[in-house]
Each structure stands twice: as structure tokens, then as C-alpha cells.
Amino acid sequence: MRTRRTLRRLPLAAATVAALSLAAPSSLAGGDLHLNELYVSHDGQDDQEFIELVGTPGRSLDDCFLVVVEGDQSSSTGTGIVDDVIDLGGLVLPADGYFVAGVDAVPGRDLLLGTQNAFENGSATYYLIQTTDPSALLALVGQDVDPDGDGVTQLVGLPGAGVLDLVGLVDDDAGDVVFDGALVLGPDGADVPPGIYRALDHPGRWCPEFLDYDDLATSHQARTPGAATVSCLSGDLGQRFCAATPNSSGAAASLTATGSALVADDTLGFSVSGLPPGAHARLFAGDQTIQVPLGDGTRCAGGQVLFLHPLWTASSTGVAGRDLSLSAGPASAAFLAGSTWNFQLWYRDVSGGPAGSNTSDALSIAFR
Predict the structure, then answer these.
(1) pLDDT, tens digit (0-9, with 9 covering 90-100), for 9-68
(2) Phi and psi at residue 138, to the nearest 5°
(3) Sequence-separated (6 or more) residues with CB below 8 Å from residue 90
(4) Which single residue of 98, 181, 193, 309 could bond 188 by disulfide (Cβ 3.0 to 4.6 Å)?
């Protein structure tokens, strides 16, 4: 059951320190499986909670686990404790490509998580992990996986394990923690968001709007367990094009834009998932679309080309990201209202194809 508290708003920087240095998904052969929608808190009895995965139909979920790590500073256990490890072994993704682990009242669930209160109602990091040593992961339940308090858990370096996806939810408690560079969503007022969803399924971005605390009215975005998610209310930023070539991690790098295409807002940011761990990368933009080989991938941003940001470095779980200032540097003179630019990432992949580098997919953004 959700409880409202009157507390100080969590400074975003406090919850995102790890996100700036790490960021997240990766690296075992499992890039075709992702978190897609979560509903973890609502009014009344929490009898509608679920986590939805999306991926290739028929994909085995053997050695895959959902893991929740406590991030609420006010928790009696403290932060960094593994609250839950949910074993998906012996199951497969259904023919529609959606897998739902949920409590009893969730329609169309594929794995029962009890009758209610499957998840705590506070700040936490949610992981999708694949491992060749399930016993080592299960042994961490109730253990502190961040004993040195640096925001990097032992889950990342667990032998034989890989983080396939992760995301962090926060309420407004000062001092709460999100781990391993997970994208931070929340708070929703004073509380942890009741639920989150990707725009039109993965690889769509996590929407900045949240699902509804009122599980009956759903006056905001409706929950869609076991079915396609809807577009973000704020609209999807950029038109995706130019399919990426898989790299040495087994995944293809996917670029996502967040914020606003309104130049005056100056809130544009980019993130990428599916990079080889530790890969160096450079974001670039072109005012025309082309299609020519670049490394082991395809360059699709051409014409006048701008290289943006300093060099990015992928986290151990294969993601990176930065905000892009539209009011300073080369962007201020190029990304003007009425112009359209195409963004892409070029990255090193020495263990991949013969060229030793690759490219992400591309996003076309019309500025206004």
C-alpha cells in the first residue's frame, strides 16, 4: 500500500552520481531481452504489481533473473541490500514476445509473484540479469552488494553474470541511491513512481510520464501488461532510422534522445545502450542522411558533420550518455529552430568485426 510522506525533494544529482560514471545494459548473449514496463506501487492493496519483459518470441529465460536492490536511505536495512531475486528459469518468452511476472490479479501473467505487495514502495534499482552461476546470485539475497558505498554493486562483476537491462526508481528522500549507472526515474511528487514504460516497447525510451497511482481509473497512461506500450505523452523525440549492426557484445547499439526538441528549452540529452563494455564512443550529427560503410557499421549522418561532446566511455554494462547544450559550443550555431539534424554514435569495438569500430542506429530530430 502506498503511503505519502512530506519530505525534501531528492536532488537529481544525488541519485545520478553512479549514472554519470557507469550507465547500463550489456553483454552476455542476451541483448534480445529487455525490461519494458514496471508497475510497482499504487493506491490501496498492491495487487496489480508486475514487471514486463520484451524480446524474441520463444527465447529461453533459463539463467535469467529479476533482481531488486534497495536504494531507500530510510530503509531499516540500509541501501545496497538485495531485496529480491526472481528466478525465471524453465520459462520462455511467449509467441507474442511479452513476458509478465506479476501478482495474482494481473491479467495474462506468465509468472505468479504472490497475491500482493511483491515489491517495496521506495527507491530501488531493478535489474534483468543472466548468469551461468545462479547459485552465486541467489546467495546474495539479503546481502549488501555495495559495501563500500560507491554506487557500483557486486552484481556487475559477478563471475559468469551480465546485466541485460536495469532502471532506477526514486522517491524524494535525500540520500537515496540508484546503482550501477541505471537511468533514474522519479520522484512522482513525494513518492516513487507507481509505474514506468518504454515508448512503443524497447528500444523506445523510458517515458518521463508515469503510470497512474489509481489502479482503477488509470487516468494517466493505461497499463498494458502482455501487450504493446503506448507512445510517451510528451511524444517520442526523434525519428529512428538506419539499423545498427550487432557488435562483440551480441547487441546492436541503440541511440535514444530525451528532453525537448524546442531549442529554447535547452533540455536535449542522449544515451546509448548495447555498446561493448568500456567502449569509447563519439556522438556526431549531420544535416543530411547518407548510407555509406563506416567501420563494421553504416554511417547515416552526413552532409555538414559536427562531432559533439568529449569522448564517451561505455559502462561495464554497455551504456553511456550525456546532455547536449543547445546554448553553447557548436550546437548553438547549428541546431536552430526549423533545422533538422541526424545523430549517430561511432564507437570502438576491437573484438568485433575486422574494422575494429561500429556505429549505432540514428535519430533524426527536427528542432523548433
Answers:
(1) 222 233 333 333 333 344 344 458 999 999 999 888 888 999 999 999 999 999 999 999
(2) -65, -30
(3) 61, 62
(4) 193
